[in-house]
Amino acid sequence: xxxxxxxxxxxxxxxxxxxxxxxxxxxxxxxxxxxxxxxxxxxxxxxxxxxxxxxxxxxxxxxxxxxxxxxxxxxxxxxxxxxxxxxxxxxxxxxxxxxxxxxxxxxxxxxxxxxxxxxxxxxxxxxxxxxxxxxxxxx
Length: 139
Known about the structure:
The protein is an alpha+beta fold. It has one domain: Immunoglobulin-like (Sandwich), CATH 2.60.40.4120. The chain has helices at 2-18, 51-54; strands at 37-45, 59-62, 64-70, 75-81, 90-96, 101-104, 117-122, 129-137. Strands 3-4-8-7-6 form a 5-stranded mixed sheet, with no helix packed on it. A 3-stranded antiparallel sheet has the order 2-1-5, with no helix packed on it. A hairpin with a 6-residue loop joins strand 7 and strand 8 (129-137).
């Protein structure tokens, strides 16, 4: 009797989980299927004398303006800082299209942005992959 109950339970579990292995295609609307940068936040490490340093916060937000240009040939993101900063010690956070994925991320630490950097973003469907060139400029 125990053996039959075990076999029935096993059969039930097999039937329950086989539907999970099905490859389901989801139709994503074209207006939603984007691989774009929609926003940028720039930070630098907090240093002695900063209000953030006194509060034990690691980073200070830097005011900047962003110019995004997406064409068939190139996708650029020019970040113009409002104050002169050491470009070799910045952290940049990108906001991207909903449900898109960053394939080649920037990283989450302080980095050198004195040279251009690139990041790849993939749309939710995976049909669109765009490489964005980021350039940070002092005033």
